[in-house]
Amino acid sequence: MSRILLIGSGGRESAIAYKLRQSPRLTSLHVFPGNGGFPENEVLPPDSFQLKDKESVQKFALQNQYDLVIVGPEDPLVDGVTDWLAEIGIPVFGPSAYCAQVEGSKDFAKSLMKEAKVPTAKYETFADYQSALNYVKGEGAPIVVKADGLAAGKGVTVCFSVQDAEQALKEIFLDQKFGVSGAKVVIEEFMDGQEASIFAISDGERYITLPAAQDHKRAYDGDKGPNTGGMGAYCPAPIATESVLEKVNTLIFDPMFRLFREKGYPYKGLLYAGLMISKEGEPRVVEFNCRFGDPETQCVLSMLDGDLLEICQAAAKGNLSDVEYDILSGASTVVVLAAEGYPESYAKNIPLEIPETGTKDILVFHAGTTKKDGKLVSSGGRILGISSRGKDLLDSVNKVYSYLNKLHIPQTFYRKDIAKKAL
Ligand code: AMP
Ligand code: GLY
């Protein structure tokens, strides 16, 4: 029997929790800090512990004797929450601070990829404005400028002219838009193709992969507007054919996990490969993340016919080979309902009335929601994720949008073209 602590507050954690609740192993689920969609008995009081404070986390986890802690977002992983809990013998689903650098530092990720000979864009790292600019001028456009360090997906600029790149470098070095994380910059070759996200869950030795999803990062229809955390996704993504998936395993996951082991830091937890797949079907890595993707998780987990709690526990304990699971047929889609203005400054405290979906094929996952005086209101840019499973992609897309048509929440918007590329 298992007492679980889930860390996080997004749509991703809502989907993880939904799946955990189906597990016969679950005795109790605590979530911290959670959101307005979690039952009150699951949400821990905000002063339970300080997530950034090692002693506070250790004390709370020991008092509660958790059987497993599942870490949703990247920040606590990069801070070392897994190592803190491992020190006191509490199993964690999520990589160590060393391994989490694969997301925490683009420079670290790129040098590991180079060492493991993983296909990715050519790059150089710079610590000052002038040498970065000289390099950009030498290479020409299109070119991609990335602030090193965590920047909530906002540190990347795809530049179609040298002037755009110059502007991006100015923002990083001169305006210090990303603070200290802008102290270094990775400049990368532009890769053409279609993106896909693939999750591998590893116990340090073995790994399993979940079906590929395609995220929609731009705010508006037709891939227009600013980059966001993700406005919707669908799964499986047909761009990730059998042959692509095989290459992803042999050229990307195998050598990455092998390298982590060789360095003495076996990777345990989820490794998210953000891929660019060329017209010729060659996958290259855009980025790695050290955790489940958001909103991809809200559709990928809908395709999992298996016990997520058992899988996470096995990954944490190193016995993934004992776990049996299946992938369902059909397809799933998630569409994010966002607050007007997102990803820039956006409306908050929007009153939310969320009708029943009437079917378990359509699920409403809360993200930026909270309860104020007993009433549900918005508190974040991405408010809800509407997710559905259908007999095929068209069926799941139709289900999601038929529900969204019934939602009348002021000051919100959503993309109307999620999965369109694959229909
Ligand atoms: P990242 O935060 O590294 O995932 O980058 C955010 C988005 O920028 C990606 O999802 C891609 O759409 C785009 N991007 C990043 N790097 C490249 C690249 N080298 N070539 C083309 N597009 C890129
Ligand atoms: N949806 C992109 C991410 O989770 O990073």
TrEMBL record:
GO terms for molecular function: ATP binding; metal ion binding; phosphoribosylamine-glycine ligase activity. It is an enzyme of class 6 (ligase). InterPro entries: ATP-grasp, ATP_grasp_subdomain_1, PreATP-grasp_dom_sf, PRibGlycinamid_synth_ATP-grasp, PRibGlycinamide_synth, PRibGlycinamide_synth_C-dom, PRibGlycinamide_synth_C_sf, PRibGlycinamide_synth_CS. Its cofactor is Mg(2+); Mn(2+). One of its GO terms (biological process) is 'de novo' IMP biosynthetic process. Keywords: ATP-binding, Ligase, Magnesium, Manganese, Metal-binding, Nucleotide-binding, Purine biosynthesis. Pathway: Purine metabolism; IMP biosynthesis via de novo pathway; N(1)-(5-phospho-D-ribosyl)glycinamide from 5-phospho-alpha-D-ribose 1-diphosphate: step 2/2. It holds the Pfam family GARS_N. The keyword Manganese applies. It catalyses: 5-phospho-beta-D-ribosylamine + glycine + ATP = N(1)-(5-phospho-beta-D-ribosyl)glycinamide + ADP + phosphate + H(+). Its EC number is 6.3.4.13. It comes from the Bacteria. Gene3D superfamilies: 3.40.50.20, ATP-grasp fold, A domain, ATP-grasp fold, B domain, Phosphoribosylglycinamide synthetase, C-terminal domain. SMART domains: GARS_A, GARS_C. Residues 110-317 form the ATP-grasp domain. The keyword Nucleus does not apply. Belongs to the GARS family. This is Phosphoribosylamine--glycine ligase.
